[in-house]
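Input for the complex:
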Amino acid sequence: MNPVVAQLTLRGLLGRRRVFVLAALPVLLLLFSLVLRLTIGPSEDLLESIIGGLALATMLPLLALIAGTGAIGPEIDDGSIMYLMAKPVSRHLIIRSKLLVATVVVLVFASFPVFVSGLLLTQTSMALVFGYTLSTALAGIAYCAVFLLLSVITRNAVIIGLIYAIVWETIVGTFVPGAKTLSIMQWSLAFAEKAGGDQAVRLGVQSEVSPVLGGILLLVVTVLATWYAGVRLRTLRLAGEE
Amino acid sequence: MSVLVLDRVSRWFGNVVAVNDISMTIGPGITGLLGPNGAGKSTVINMLSGFLAPSSGTATLDGATIWRNEDIYRSVGLVPEREAMYDIVTGWDFALANARLHGLAEPGAAALRALTTVDMLQAKDRALSTYSKGMKQRVKVASALVHDPSVLLLDEPFNGMDPRQRLHLMDLLRTMANDGRTVLFSSHILEEVERIADGIQVMVAGRHAASGDFREIRRLMTERPHQYTIRSSDDRALASAIISDGSASGVQLKGSGPATPMGESEAELHVEATDFSVFVRVLPRLARERGITLYDVSPADESLESVFSYLVAR
Amino acid sequence: MPTPADAATPQPGSPQPGSPQQNAPEQGVIHDIGYRRYTGARLGRGPVRTALFLDTLRGCFGLGRAGKAKVMPAVLTAMVVLPALSVVFYANVTGGTDLPFSYREYVGSITTLVFIYVAGQAPQAVSRDLRFRTISLYFSRPIPRSDYVLAKFAAMSSAVMIFCVLPLLVLYIGALLAKMPVGEQTADFLKGLALALLFSLVVAGLGLVIASVTPKRGFGVAAIVTVLLLADSLAGVVITVAEHQNNPTLSWYGGLLSPLYLVDSALAWVLSLDGGRLNDQLPPDALGGLVFVAVLLAVIVGNYLLLNLRYRKVSVS
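Predicted:
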């Protein structure tokens, strides 16, 4: 990891108004959980619909999209990445540093709020809460790696990322059963399912793959995406302004 | 002492050839890369700084291939043309970050030295977004100087600078060259190049049109015979006027009948001028004295003439 | 526009007897190199608005822009049209008597794609003018700022309407070709059409408002999608929770959060359809319906006013 690259990336990610968009999502989640806790009280069903339905399906991909593409996309767009590139620093190291920062941002803004929200809503299934938190963390890393790669490859990274995260994972997944197994969300959900045990089964927390397979797939995707992003960064062309 | 070498380099983007079969060697001292906008200067700088691969040919620094070689940046400082920087950091943080990215032993001292060199110490604690164009330019130069490189590449460095800052940067480049460094900068303004460059490389439409000492190029271009094709209201009278004036060594009439402004006639006058600069001044005078209207005066060897008319256009 | 009078004036660069070049060789002089004043008719506000509208509308589908900008609108349009096309193709081959879903349901199923489309196009419609400060060029023309807003709002809304209505038209024409009952299909189509048009107004307005405060394109895209999808998900959560609690009132009002449910419920109440939120919910009372209509109007008008307010403050320097 290169501390300077990480610092610059972090300032770019949290600077200006971007931090408000990042914070809006977890703040809403926490507020919502708090209101439900106070009005209805803790309930495992709520836990499943809030965390499974809202946090994992919508909030996490969006946050990872903002963090993953925001870690490098704007720099490539305006050309300031040149200052990082014109240095004797390995391109892979630049990518890894940026991935690390994006992941930390996702952990702070997604996994941690999911954990707190889980604490607010659960009665008896602490194991499931831990499982969900683990799922968001693992999926977060993989998402960030993929979205970082997309940003290096194309300037339409945000839109393509959205189509993958929202259309592919939710819409296509519901109609085409095969598409479900090719989903970062499903792979990581295997861990929540495993951790939740009987509770998970009762609440319908169910993954298409086993935790072992899910873990391997997550690892492979993360490593491959990170490596290939470094390869592509080495040959990045900064031609054409807008 | 570092030497940049382009050996038969071409670069094309799809169907567009940006740089066409160029070979040049750039050694210590200041070299100006001169040419009109769109001549391929930035493409050359990008290939020399490792941001673009040559489509064919090789670009090397002291024998080492530049493309995909991050190590060259230990000895290369780059000042890009684009203005975008990390807007929210201060000038000091930016210079320091650049020094740290180079892995220097004392990044703080290096950043301080670089900012002092470009005279940006007093504004170092302001965010880059509040800087004027000239200030940004100077911080960009500072960021390229932090590691004391033996090669300095600058893409249009004088753009947006006021005359005082321009002089300052020229002095700075001069000093760097005197220390034995290799400095290459691109420009489309002749005075800048003429003033400080030891040698120039002229590019026109992606081709390497001329290289060497500026005055020498100028002499070569003015002293060789220049060919013109002229259409006028009375070619015959004009031909005799040109010959008797002595500014041309040869005149040839082609076609017959008076030409018309719309160019229906085939009639043309081919002139071989001995001295370009004399001829272009004499020709309108001759035409005016004899009441001849010039419809068309075009140089027959297009590319070099365009460089020249470009070079001398003030 | 060239007039016959223009053609008679000398062309730039052609030598003219008696021009200053020949009369005053030694003194300072401004040469006549053929610049001409514009003498044609000057068009008023209306045509300016129309030009801005058409240009933005074309831009929303990548027309008149670089090749890469055409890819995303085309891909997304294909994604909403192709399913409709395959459904009617199937119906025509097998000779069904009804579509497998209502036109309203089809609009419901493409909402996410509509969100992504708006997120992609709203920033290009307004952010670039702000980021590159071309906005000052517009406002240096004799058009009031409200005209700019009106043209952009109308263009973005029209673009989203075209995006939503295209697949409905495919379904409708396909259904008629398959000889499905005309009256039934037409009535159902018109309901879907009304939903699509109002939904487009809401989403386009929201997208423009967010885009107008985010000059960076990528950031604008992310912000729009975040707001729209989050609103949808929140509505889903509220409804799930309310149904869990057997609280139909809360469940009904939860629909307010979702752009789609908001429009559909209001429409269903006004037209006395069998239910809002795509047929599975009835308003608890008349007030329930009124509130949705009021909020719907407030959102549409509110977006427009917010946009006006935003552009009143844009500095042109």
